[in-house]
Automatic annotation (TrEMBL):
Residues 149-290 form the Hemerythrin-like domain. This is Nitroreductase/quinone reductase family protein. Belongs to the F420H(2)-dependent quinone reductase family. SUPFAM superfamilies: FMN-binding split barrel. It catalyses: oxidized coenzyme F420-(gamma-L-Glu)(n) + a quinol + H(+) = reduced coenzyme F420-(gamma-L-Glu)(n) + a quinone. Signal peptide: none annotated. InterPro entries: F420H2_quin_Rdtase, Hemerythrin-like, Split_barrel_FMN-bd.
Length: 301
């Protein structure tokens, strides 16, 4: 639960189209909704932000306290967040900047709002700079769906795009010049937070999609189409296999800085192979039926 003060800021923000008075009047403020790392519950926090081109930067300052704020631990566990900016609400992936990029971005933040420099001076910890990124590859996805088939294609295009994005980032990591790690040296421990956050966001979305299909879509369709029992059995089995690989990826990424890059790349390749085959089969088997069902669904008859 937000503190009483934060809740009052949240209420005023939402009631006034993103404008807040008091100590935040005239400042750049957004609402960040994260999923609790331990509780799994949603938590909304008002935060200042700084723009970096089309990106939004938020700082884990905690007013210069000795520990990172709770929302930062939440985004490490569940990178997909909801952002309220003015009257707009959108999903983003929260990616902490690292190394030289973090230092450069923090300089920009301090130039825009010197108070963050004062917070850094109060603590020995390095204040995290978190970049809020819109999910990649959304431009190729149709904006409107008129039936369930269109909606399934939308979701599948998004999943394919996110997986491709993670694979591209991983391939770029392995293609880095040898001098970056020393001649003939294996990849350094860890993959970096950018790959980690994007992969976890993809895994969360995939799990949500498949859980919804298993709990709602498939049982409903099976009731009307008993002749497709073997099809739904196969789809359910493929879900279990994909979930197993997803669990392997999540396990590798549980250590924020220590994932084995070679194992991760192998599991990612397996995920790509299994998921692509599953999505292709699901579309072939179900799209002709789903094309006859309007989206969004109407009230029950």
């Amino acid at each position: 639960m937000p503190t009483p003060f934060n809740q009052s800021v949240i209420d005023e923000f939402r009631a006034s189209g993103g404008k807040v008075g008091g100590p935040f009047e005239g400042g750049d403020l957004l609402l960040l909704t994260t999923t609790g790392a331990k509780s799994g519950k949603e938590h909304t926090t008002p935060l200042g932000y700084v723009r970096d081109g089309g990106l939004l930067l938020i700082i884990g300052s905690n007013l210069g306290g000795p520990r990172h704020p709770d929302w930062y631990h939440n985004v490490l566990a569940h990178p997909t967040v909801s952002v309220e900016l003015g009257t707009e609400t959108f999903e983003a992936v929260a990616v902490p900047a690292e190394g030289e990029r973090r230092d450069r971005l923090f300089e920009q933040v301090v130039a825009a709002d010197p108070g963050y420099g004062e917070y850094q001076a109060r603590t020995s910890r390095i204040l995290p700079v978190v970049v809020l990124e819109r999910p990649a590859h959304e431009a190729d996805i149709p904006e409107e769906a008129t039936d369930f088939a269109d909606k399934m294609v939308q979701v599948h295009l998004w999943l394919r795009g996110q997986l491709r994005h993670v694979r591209d980032e991983t391939d770029a990591y392995f293609a880095a010049p040898a001098g970056h790690r020393g001649p003939g040296a294996p990849p350094a421990p860890g993959l970096g937070l950018q790959i980690r956050q994007h992969c976890l966001a993809f895994c969360d979305a995939l799990e949500f999609h498949h859980t919804g299909e298993d709990a709602h879509l498939f049982p409903t369709m099976a009731g009307y189409h008993p002749e497709l029992r073997e099809t739904f059995d196969r789809l359910a089995e493929e879900h279990r296999e994909v979930a197993r690989i997803q669990g392997e990826l999540a396990g590798l990424l549980a250590d924020v800085g220590g994932a084995d890059p070679v194992r991760f790349r192998a599991e990612l390749a397996r995920m790509s192979q299994e998921l692509t085959a599953h999505l292709d089969y699901e579309e072939e088997a179900l799209l002709p039926i789903l094309a006859g069902l309007p989206w969004p669904p109407g009230p029950p008859a």
